[in-house]
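Dig into what follows:
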Amino acid sequence: MHESCELERPVLQEAQNDVLTEVLLGVREDHAPATHAPATHAPATHAPATHALDTYALDTWRSFVALVEPNSGLPADYIGGELRAETRARYTSPTNIAMYLWAIVGARELGLISEREAAQRSEQVLTSLSRLERHGASGQFYNWYDAGTLDKLTRWPEPPHGPVYPFASSVDNGWLASALLLLANALPSLHARAWCLASSMDFRSYYDAHAKSAGPGLLRGGFWRAGDEPPGSNTWPRGDYSGMGETVVYTAHHYGAFNTEPRIASYIAIALGQLPPEHYFAAWRTYPDSSHWSQKTAPVGVWRRYLGVDVFEGAYALGERRVVPSWGGSMFEALMPTLVVPEARWGARSWAITHATYVQAQIDFGLEEAGYGYWGFSPACAPEGGYREYGVPALGMEPSGYAADAGRRTLFAGACEPGLREARGQPHLREARGPSGLREARGQFHLREARDYGEGVVTPHAAFLALAFAPSATLANLAALRRDFPGVYGPGGFKDSVNVATGRVADRYLALDQGMVLAALTNHLRADRLHGYLAPVLQPTLEPLMAMEEFGVLTNEPSFP
């Protein structure tokens, strides 16, 4: 359980429940000035817009206060739209915990809580993290825990109460490590504890050095301890990539698409010296046109070499512009890492261009192509119930794609059910993530063209992710959603999604999505402050890698409305 990361004496010993109660009743007034971190730019936002963003931030933070389980200080996976404690989930995950740590730092930067309260809340999280059962040989956290008792889940706490096969996920542990490293710099009083936990997580345990026929390797989606793997996994690979002294059962897939959220795990591993810098160039920007793997669109691009690694700088053509696609065409795949990593600043000939074009493409799809009148498409709770992956099909490599509408009419309908991302190893996504573990995608896709755009489902957190690239368009979109769909905004800010044809709302707040919202707001209102806390760890290794690359996207830059 890595008890060495638990210090003998806590930094602060005040009662946590008193603080929690104060904030639940309203914003505390003993706000201390926010400490400063290196800034990259100060966005120009007019006073009325700033007031709206301040309101969004305050209400989003309120949702986190309600999400927290008082006894452990850990956030639940979700809570109902009225923020009642009885609607709070009983379980949490490494990504949920990461989002809460981001939110604590963001709330401190925005003056919503004091320095002391930020330290109190963070310390309680670190104490609980040190008590969670981990995979001992690698230091990796499992994907699901009881938020109250801290027990590792082996049976799902909600109906139908099926078995849970404890799984260590590379991307979810990547998000947690990012939050711990950020926290170590944001709250110096907790530096040693946060750094100890982060540096004890060995990401080499996911790294298959022989994933490709040549060049550096790729990360597996994750692994199970032998004996804990789900049924039907007898053909999945077994091994010990990092020499940790234990054979584990790996997912059958690797993370091979570059412009997706699992790159955060690669960034952390490279920065900590656990993986070679060449690994940055291993994943596909797109598959080459000559590849035997199917993808949504025939790419354009050229081959280039960096650090001895041959890279196909592929892109998809969108009219006169080009973009590096994500896997499913969703906003969070492409932009979630930008909340804590200054990719656009470090990658002026790569990330800066493709991120802006990606955002413009989401805007154009919602407003013009589909004619929904609103935009922002990303995995979220579905208004009809359950969890769904939403995206713009043209922005994804996956042949079956993510749909932007409730009936999945905006993509080529195929033989696979919704939730295909689960088959690619994203256990934190909910529709197909069920307690039985990962499912493998099988069979061929039988494609047909969509005939209409159906009932669009817009996810507000996806719009917030665009703040850094299209602030005016983002503010207008959010204002329109709040004006036209009163049920989409509640005491905890924007709820998870809305069907813009029917007005039906997913009446729930997710820790994952709320964390992205508050991080985006913090960066916009405080000059990229979150970047400043993680950048010192990543910059020595990551900035040179990003700076040397040129994506195959150098055409006319987009112009935002």
About this structure: The longest strand covers residues 309-318.
